[in-house]
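Quick illustration, no need to memorize.
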Amino acid sequence: MSQIRDLTSDAAFHSHLSSLPPTTLAVISFHTPWAAPCKQMRVILETLASSYPPQDPPTISFLNLDAEELSDISESYDVTAVPFLILQRDGKVLESVSGSDASKVREAVEKHAGKGGNTGKLGLPPALETSPRQDGGEEEARGDKVKDLSNYAPGAGDAATAPEMSSTEGDKEELNKRLGELVKAAPVMIFMKGTPSTPQCGFSRQLVGLLREKGVRYGFFNILADEDVRQGLKEWSDWPTFPQLYLQGELVGGLDIVKEELDDNPDFFSEFQAAPKGQGGMAAPESQREPVST
């Protein structure tokens, strides 16, 4: 049976793709270790892979990539949420699938590769379901509603960027007061990984570029420089991922939500445009811990 190949570097990915014959279908799965639907997608792909016997030359190749670790590749395929599947042949994208709906994934793969001989003893599992958020915010209610990608956090072995947040009630109240002030520090505020000049994740970089393209002036806060803010804001805003965009102190959401707002209303940022399109942005010290507004 065919197997899923885990690729951990840009070089390994491009090398493997270049080694495939032009007739081979590449099934490229983007995941993150923290997103539960990605585990569901892994089961689906393993089941599908088992139904395609290995051939020489191969007719199909299943690839698995960590979307955050390989952010440049993710950006090249416009991946803004996981799980996300790309079907590609001879360098051309044939189809993409968002979410962990087994029937959609199988239909897409069989459409371009033909049906395999055996779907495995367990068959394909149903899509993973989660509960909607209580505050009325959008949350995945079905497996094909996918998680925002930007919730990546360093592993336990990585060096801490700031002291851990105190769990005392007094400190929590003080932190919440600080967060309430931070989100209103500028009419448009981004809480991002890194700074606009040196973003530390692809999705923060995309959001900064989008605001610059729209001519929006904004303030920013580097959450990697302050673990209290990074962890506290997730609970305070009931939004577990970064980057986060705020307008007049109100949460808009992450990159995918901002894109949806612009699709629905191209003038979404018109009130906040203070520079010619393509020249938006804001300068701030690289060592910034508090936002600067000008």
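Residues 36-49 form the longest helix (14 residues).
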